[in-house]
């Protein structure tokens, strides 16, 4: 198909999609609701079939997930603490996605943020709140720099960011491992560790994020900060010139450039902000206490970076929806700890999460394919 024909189809697809958005501006169409209900129900049924075929009981597994994430005393607080860094990573992913960039190296950026925060936190002296904020700032800096390198490679050397961010995640993990083997960098003194474990010295009390007790549930105040940042980002992306220019850059770089949007400035800036959010999530994980007991250990990321990436993907770059999706993913992670009592592997939570992601991605994909098909038919009629 010629380039002119492809452009015409894209324009027609945009027209169809725009008309669909116009029809559903004042509410979600019943067709979309039905698609989501069918997709989620199918995912639950398929999960139940998998559980029964592997010797487990679907009812006991779902009950264990609910007990481990919400119903048992103190579990909601743990779920909130786990969901907070997932949300932070998702917010950063939304920023880079709005600019049309595919950042999939959040795990490495989170690890670098945690390592920078640990290095600064173990050496700072002074008032606790100031030192804590400075260590989190170092975490933001570490994640931003790590993502910014990929942005520079993208706009100055035309290296695809989807490749560079992924590979740099592996480099970040090895760099953290190197730091954990050097007492001059991260490794704790021998007296502070047992069996030669590669860990940092535990953060002192003044360097730990304060925790809130709410109806018997305890979680760090960083969870509230994450929600406030989500509200700020929602306003910035939807109500400011910067957000408009990022969206323009992501949807049509050529048009954005003709309108005066500097691709390099906004693209690299989006990558810096994206990595900064992930680095902040790593710093919050370290100082929050729900991961590693205030210590940086091997495999510290624990997949939170990938969970945040999935949360942004499922929410389709909608900031407020990402808050809910991050909480759901937090429920799956904390609830998986109760699955051993049911006789099934805790990894079954990953299966549930994967099917949940697919169920939420199927409706928009089907709607887009239908719009594409209608646009193709419209273009054929015009020709």
Please provide a written account of the structure.
This protein has helices spanning 3-23, 30-53, 58-71, 75-98, 106-121, 128-156, 161-179, 222-239, 241-251, 253-258, 263-288, 304-314, 319-335, 348-382, and strands at residues 211-214, 217-220. The chain has 383 residues and is mainly α. It has a two-stranded antiparallel ribbon. Helix 3 (58-71) crosses helix 13, helix 4 (75-98) crosses helix 12 and helix 8 (222-239) packs across helix 9. The protein is globular.
Top CATH class of the largest domain: Mainly Alpha
Query: What share of the residues does DSSP label as strand, in percent?
Result: under 5%
Number of strands: 2
Question: Could you please say which CATH topology of the largest domain applies here?
Answer: ABC transporter involved in vitamin B12 uptake, BtuC
User: How many H/I helical runs?
Assistant: 14
Roughly how many Å is the radius of gyration? 23 Å
Could you list the spans in which at least 5 consecutive residues all have pLDDT below 50? 1-5, 15-27
What is the level-2 CATH architecture name of the largest domain?
Answer: Orthogonal Bundle
What is the distance, rounded to the nearest whole angstrom, between the alpha carbons of the first and last residues?
13 Å
The coarse silhouette is globular
Q: How much helicity do the residues have?
A: over 70%
Q: What is the H/E order?
A: HHHHHHHEEHHHHHHH
Q: How would you sum up the major sheet?
A: 2 strands, antiparallel
Name the structural class.
Answer: mainly alpha
**Mean pLDDT score, rounded?**
84
Strand order of the largest sheet: 1-2
Overall number of structural domains: 2
